[in-house]
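During data preparation, a discrete fold description was generated, as reproduced here:
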Amino acid sequence: MFSYRLVKKVLVFVSLLTVCPAATYGYELFQPVQRDLNVSTAYILFAGKARNSESIMINNTKVYTASNGAFAHSVKLNDGENRIVVRSNYSTKVYNIYKKTNISKAQVEVQEFSRRPVLVKLNDTPLRSAPAEDGFNILSYLFKDTRILINGEKDGYYRVYLSEDKTAWIAKSDVENVCETAEDPAKFINMNSERYKNAVVQTISFTGNLPYTIEDKDKEIVFKVYNPELSESSVYTVNIPKPDKYFYHVSLVNGLYTVKVCEVPRTFEDCTILVDAGHGGSQKGAVGCLGDEEKNINLKIALELQQILKEKGAKVVMTRECDGNITLKDRIKIAKENDIDIYLSIHLNSVGDVSFNTFKHRGTSVFYFNNNSKELAKILEKSITKKAGTWKDGVKPASFAVIRPADYVGVLIETAYMINPFDTLLYTREDFARNAAEGIVEGISEYLNK
């Protein structure tokens, strides 16, 4: 017999499924994106959002879940195949991660050869203290058509002969051979020093482009130019005094070096500040436990920062004011073209090839590269954590491209961790972007007036 009551119950059940789909009762994982992966890292991070008070287990380890459902956990990988099971009381997912075995390379010896000249192809070419791409071993950035002597090679680098007691390294791809026609060694012409209200300008001139090194000492900038084709001891040293808060710029035009050491302005009105919202466009940055994309939060903080700095009277330069692609080179180009004083790169943090710790990888960290930026980094860590309510995660040196130039005081700020469940409770608040921006401005104010 046909039952209208049964049909009604079925329709009600179907409607409930439509309103409350099955996904509501199962966790979401935003990292890793794929279930089958080949990696070479020691750990793999799992980050996601639990639903309806789910209890999350990863390989039989219970994972802490915040009140908003955010959770994160890293798993140490063995060489070869790894089977990782993520389970809750609603669903189970299996991940197959294959870790490649790292094969150590045999030590390569330096191949010696007779000295010969080569030319640097492009501006901003790193001259390094060792044959490896390490941001902390950069001695200087050479200019296009600088003539250097090489006398050995190793691991894709040429050894550069500077003087009888000084060598350096340059990537083979950064230089080209010199025409066989003999040239007279470059000769020294003159040097000059001028002092201005907020700057010292030192010039030293030669008949050709020569290699140089620059070193930031406690009280001075030490600038050295090498002319090994003239003699093995032909080194020209200039000691330039520096103020407490400073930045410096080196230029080269037809053999004329100009080193300008500037004092940082003391007021917002005299200061040009670049605000750089990290990532953008197709570059999402880190993805958080809740599926948030870093680029969007960076931009929110940057726009708040722009507004407050303008209210303070500063001239503000933005790398982006919307969601768009912009390269690291373009960010640095914008900074240099606008003669900025301070570079603020805004980010949120994640973790890489490490064991994630909920209590260790948490809060605000500020990175610097040059000595002239360390003091601002220290002040900002204190002011941001106080205003935004984040933990202190440290002031650390790092070789990020946008803060490497010494042409300005540059810091990279990681305001919070995208993948920390505790931090997700903070950065998802409506007032977080404003609070973080206010903390940055308060820190800059203290730095300028100190």
About this structure: Residues 294-311 form the longest helix (18 residues). The two ends are 89 Å apart (CA to CA).
